Amino acid sequence: MECDSPEAIQAFLAVAMKLRPLEERRITLKEFKPRSDDVIIATTSKSGTTMMQQIVHGLRTGGSMDFEEISVVIPHLEHAKGIGIDLDAEQVAKPRAFKTHECYNFCPKGAGRHIVVIRHPLDIAPSLYSFLHGWVFASGTISPDTFIRMSILSRTNPPESLDDKSNDFHFIESWWKHRNDENVLFFFYEDIIENFAETVREVARFIGCGEDEKIIELATKQASKEFMLEHVSHFDEHIFKKIRNKVCGLPEDRGMGKENSKVRRQGDGIRRRDLSPEIVKEINLAWKRMEELTGCASYDELRAKYGRKSRETERHVRGMECDSPEAVQAFFAVAMKLRPLEERRVTLKEFKPRSDDVIIATTPKSGTTMMQQIVHGLRTGGSMNFEEISVVIPHIEYAKGIGIDLDAEQVAKPRAFKTHECYDFCPKGAARHIVILRHPLDICPSLYSFLHGWAFASGTISPDTFIRMFMLSPPNPPESSDHEASLFYFIESWWKRRNDENVLFFFYEDIIENLAETVRKVAHFIGCGEDEKTLDLVTKQASKEFMLEHVSQFDEHVLKKLRNKLSGLSEDSGMGKENSKVRRQGDGIRRRDLPPEIVKEINLAWKPLEELTGCASYDELRAKYGTK
């Protein structure tokens, strides 16, 4: 057969359909129901899947190599049925683990954790071609260009059902939208290779096993390319290949050469540099949909913006080392100008709320802006006629500094205000208080992300230092408004008042789980906007989707411009989307990015609250007193 002839392409497709029969895949993906503690490794093709299987298996077994082939102990979902593996059976160790190349839409739902790896399409393409060349199609019968157009570049639009095939671009697009889900650990393949030991450590923490140093060191060694090449028969998929070769009418040893191995030496097969300029251009053009989704014009730009290096602390910024005395001093200087204590003290002493006012009192980064939007929508019938939400519902502590008269009438009744003050210092006299708490392990990274690159230069203050300086101090309750209260004392002070007649108390997580019911409760509490039409409109307008569409009305730009000028910062400092009050999922760091040491310190800081509430953790408190 001539290369790329109709006969060659037909022969290739015939073998490909038998290797991965669509009906078998469809049944498996519909029928398999993962358990809540399962781990699914989901990757683009040729993106370190086998290496990640080895990492997970090593961590869960303490480094056992007692298996014939890695895909027997961590099965490939789509292929398991065809080689006689029961996906519902117990595995040799816990947690059970599986691998897949399915996009998010079709990946079986229910697993507790997903480890997702993506790779540069210009490296996936030649690697996959090399893996299948001489096995699924005879050597010289299919060119790289034809192969790539038939596989990686096939189908422009995402698949609509299991009857449709997806490609690696669909995979990246679908999983990118979920990269910041709590049960997803997301990697760029290139970051794994550059910092392998840290990857193993992250995976251990994520799946909750193998976290002691001895196991981490062993798993790191056993997942290295050198080790896997020495034990290549454990990683060559020979069991699957023998069975499928028989079904396809191929010789038993077809595809068993080193060039078709899952673990190959550098130089085996073709590389990115071997691709024709035309196919490189087509692959790059295929990124267009991802650019619309991510705002990044290429994979390299995406990784530069969201990969490990962008998350890791820069060691030298503006001539300062991270967490150096100079960096801490610079941060304090800006922080004091952004929120001057004297101005706060005077405002809290002088302001006298009216008996029909509403005060929204929250821990930081706990849905304050959303609650402002709810209250304002209910009292105005959904009016969006305001420049920024904190102009119409002012922040008590900051109002004086930006020229807002707290004693003035507002655009609608009841007047409403927001504060992050503990009960002790919150101005007394307001008829109603709406109080919101949130999990400290979510508040800390969210507040860090909000101030990072604004109150302190990127890379000059680590999350650990920030959290110790602002969230965990001072440990004792403040004696007067000359001192700021810690996050935990806010919770303690308002918890004691949660059953007061004039307090409506929420857990942030309950609000997110049932926004419509929250709006209804707030309407009843403040006594306005209780008709169904207003309730429906306000629920829509307080959704993240709506607020992101109108983000300039919720970004605190009025305060920031004035404070930036006073602080000697550039006018647009802190105006990026990562510093917005309403952020897309994925902007900034999350709970899972916190190191174990700081997580432990945050959990220990709960102790006084355990004595007060009888609950050993925030989760236990919410389980006992929350909506559910």
The structural class is alpha/beta
Task: Quickly give the CATH architecture of the largest domain.
Answer: 3-Layer(aba) Sandwich
Radius of gyration: 28 Å
CATH third-tier fold name of the largest domain: Rossmann fold
Q: What distance separates the N and C termini?
A: 67 Å
What is the name of the CATH class of the largest domain? Alpha Beta
Q: How would you sum up the major sheet? A: 4 strands, parallel
How much β-strand is present in the residues?
5-15%
Number of helices: 33
Number of strands: 10
The rough form would be described as elongated
Structural account:
- The chain is an alpha/beta fold and 628 residues long.
- It has two domains: 306 residues, Rossmann fold, CATH 3.40.50; 261 residues, Rossmann fold.
- The strands form three sheets. The protein has a four-stranded parallel β-sheet with strand order 2-1-3-4, with helices on both faces.
- Strand 5 and strand 6 form a beta hairpin.
- Helix 25 runs parallel beside helix 32.
- 38% of the residues are buried.
